[in-house]
């Protein structure tokens, strides 16, 4: 019987050159003795080895926890980015912390402590039950960070849009099926999406600013219509301070007049049937009446610091007639000019970070579409608001001409 063969451990982690030639590698790093003897470059398959070790470790954990696959299958679809398991949760925690500590306090200019508490605390508590609202919170937080840190803008915008998509999908679906949609979470999320639409416009150039503002108005009107009839039964006490946003109007009328809007109404009223059809002219005059009431209330808000800037934003799109918005969508000149004037007024009224520069691109686009005499609508308004007890807000000064 011949001498027994010397036993040795089978190598699976040897260097690449010796794996090609099949001999055993002594696995001496950084350069094994065989490669030194043969004067070869000694390289090691680090990535492959590490990947196999990780794979074997995962397989072992899967065997130890048979329910792991079931848990993964029942996870919310928003966790499809789970591949970055060490990174994404930390990103989201950072976004949530930023929202609670900073963003929630600058969403609105209103000094009412009830409204501040709603955005900082109540909405977050609701979001833990409604993932789509949590996505909305994280989206607006990332957008706020993009405004605050321009050097990291692209990174924060990517995070923001990643959370925006699932949130927007649920809200649009809820508007399409209103019977199952009337929840405080829907309305809170819609507010955040409106803010997001304005805020992102200051960072990225929309190809069609008119279409963008129409999308915002459509969202406001759709959510308001869904919730208005059932608000009393769904809001409880959670969001009662935000009821003016749903009610379709401002909390109260303010007597007075706005000189520039009054002049605009006079100009529209003087247009002939050839310039503008009668039905269109009536819709435009009514829209200007409502806009004047909103501006008067906004002026009072700047003194009282109680009316929500969001309430100002939500009021006019909700109370204008059904006939007016399609005219804007058709790019009719007078309705388009009125819409642009609303956005200009909004930029003057609101000093929120998400309103900064909201009117510039829209007015640039609209200006190219208007005739010379209608460009007066695009003049940035001065302090032309006069609050007076003798003139009732919402009056019809054009009637009787």
Automatic annotation (TrEMBL):
Biased composition range(s): Polar residues: 66-77
Any one GO molecular function term: zinc ion binding
Region listing for Disordered, in residue ranges: 1-30, 53-85
Source organism per UniProt: Rhinocladiella mackenziei CBS 650.93
Name of protein: Zn(2)-C6 fungal-type domain-containing protein
UniProt keyword terms in alphabetical order: DNA-binding, Nucleus, Transcription, Transcription regulation
Domain of life: Eukaryota
Biased composition (Basic residues): 1-11
